[in-house]
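Deliverable D5.2: sample structural annotation.
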Amino acid sequence: MNNLPPTERTHILDQNQAQRYILDQEQQPPMQPPMQPPMQAPMQLPQPPLQPPEFMLPPQTQAPAGQQTVTMSQVEGGEGLGDVIPDKETAPLKERSSLAYTSFNFINAIIGSGVIGMPYAMQQAGFGMAVLLFILVGLVTDTSLVLTIKAGRLANADTYQGLVEAGFGKIGFFIQSILQFLYPFISLISYNVIVGDTMTKVLIRVTGVSAESVLAKREFIVATTTLLITLPISLYRNISRLARISLVSVGIIIVVIICMFVRLPEMTAIVAEDPEDWSFAEANIASAIGILSFAFMCHHCSFLVYESLADNTQQRWNKTTHISIAISALLSFLFAIAGYGSFRSYVQGDVFENYCWNDDLMNVCRGLYAFTILLTYPIECFVARDVLETAFFRGHQPQPMFRHAILTVVISIIAMLISLTTDCLGVVLILNGIFCAVPLAYLLPPMCYLKLQEGPLFCRDKWEAWSVILFGSMAILVGSITMFTNLNEVSDCSHGKEMEYCIPEIFNATMSPVEVEEFEE
């Protein structure tokens, strides 16, 4: 076979191998079928828990079409003090807003009870210096808000309290918590003062009761509105729907500004001039800074506004901040011009005190403004209550209704009692502005940024933060000295007394008989 060609030799070998394979298969015993495993009982799957009928389930809310949503919930006694923080498992979906709508909400947060003291701030600083202060405080506040979110992104924090704790630990959290309580608590006092000051004139004009009547006493009005209106509303656990009502506050402020400009020529004609009117600068510049700081303080809600912004990049947040601060500063400045231009050296801390009691147009403005204050009160009460809940009952959650009610009653009653001791809104605004708003707005955010941002402490990227800290430090130092050296002057007010220019007999020498007759009517 070796002499055969290779191709034929390979063919023969393949045939031999095939024959051997067939013989081997015939000699093997037949294969047994594979054994089947014993039958097992089918696996029992866990049954889902029984669900209640549909009519017993709460209604499901869905975001409108085309809007993005983010998981958020209000947490009582959680990590955030008065903030809304994420809850990824059980929280309802919250709508995110466009840049324009977010800016509008931020303006609402900035313009509050502080705007009523803008004419007084202009009178304290002098007209020229007040214009500069509006620009300066606006720019510093804008820079501080930008740094707040920058630092929050560095710390991966979603609340102001979380940011401070990330930067300075428990000590920073403790200091921030104290300021976070004092700021809304003093705001509650200012709200009571405003309601007591404004509603007395409205009731006297509408009902015709005497100014000496118990019904016209500010103490009665403050106590009544606290016990019958603000305290019951503040007992709600979830005030998100109530907060939306505050959207009308900007519209009311615009209406009030228009009415003030309508009254400007008339009030200018009857208010006596003073040589120091329209002076460039006055001695109480620091007091004006305190009032402006109180008015522009909105850092405690900056993270809430940031989380509500759709596509919330740092650049979009910066643009939102610039728009909101610019519009808020403009409205505040117009309010200040209308009030100061009308009364000049006579301006009170509550500018509504300057208008005559028989001015029906301004009585309508008094009522509208008091209405917005009454609806804003529960929001600040919620923040103050949540601070106490976190500070003293952090390990005792969830919060029972009994403790919720006790804290609400204690905060409201103490704020009411303190507000009865003073009727001067100016001193309340200055105190809250200098000792609470300035640290919260101009010290803690830039200090956290310096601590969290990499690089040398005095590098170029940190100059903005240092400038904000310098402004805040000077405001507290100079403001404290000015406050206590001029305490008698800043606490001087004339609530409950008709302004002298509103009594024609006093100003007969400067008014014609026709003007006197028209004013009396």
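Annotation notes: The two ends are 143 Å apart (CA to CA). The chain has one domain: 69-520.
The annotation will be released with the project's public dataset once the embargo ends.
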